[in-house]
Structure formats: structure tokens, C-alpha cells
Amino acid sequence: MRPAKNVGGLDRTVRGVLGTSLVVAALVAILAGRRTAGVLAVVAGAGLLVNWATGFCGANALLGIDTCSDSEES
């Protein structure tokens, strides 16, 4: 069973851009020897990218937030 989409529009775009930025920052941090910061950034970035790719956010579901328009819910 697939969860209903609850992330759309500008919210989804921001998650994609921020997630990608965090993954890049994580790689830079790891290469600079800041492993803890790198791991934290890659975990946060990966979470945002999963939200972007699936259109679903568990925190939004718990809080009852839905940023999808009717046309995006397919």
C-alpha cells in the first residue's frame, strides 16, 4: 500500500534543492575531515530527497499538513 502524497508544489521543490545542497555539503565536510558534520548533513539531505522523490512526508502526515494540490495527487 502506497501512502497518500502530502508534499507538493513549492514545498517539494524546496525539499529537492535543500536536500541536494545538504548532500553536497556533506561530501565537502567529509573530504575536509569533519565526519560527524558530514554524516549528519547526508542523513538530513537524504531524508529531504526521499520526501521530494516520493511526495510523502511522515512529519506532515502526523501534523495533518498537506501541501499537494488536487492535480498532484496521482
Structural write-up:
With 74 residues, the chain is mainly alpha-helical. The chain has a domain of 42 residues. Helix content is 66%, strand content 0%. The protein is built from three helices and no strands. Helix 1 runs antiparallel to helix 2. The radius of gyration is 14 Å and the shape is elongated. The two termini are 14 Å apart.
Question: Characteristics of this structure?
Answer:
YgaP-like_TM; transmembrane; mainly alpha; 74 residues; DUF2892 domain-containing protein; membrane; transmembrane helix
Concise overview:
By secondary structure, the protein is mostly helical.
Shape annotation = elongated
Radius of gyration: 14 Å
Q: What is the overall number of helices? A: 3
Major sheet description: none
How much strand? under 5%
Q: Which regions contain 5 or more consecutive residues with pLDDT less than 50?
A: none
* Measured distance between first and last alpha carbons: 14 Å
Structural class: mainly alpha
Average of per-residue pLDDT values: 92
Order of helices and strands: HHH
Helix content: 55-70%
Number of beta strands: 0
Transmembrane segments: 12-32, 39-65
Protein name: DUF2892 domain-containing protein
Keywords: Membrane, Transmembrane, Transmembrane helix
Pfam family, one: YgaP-like_TM
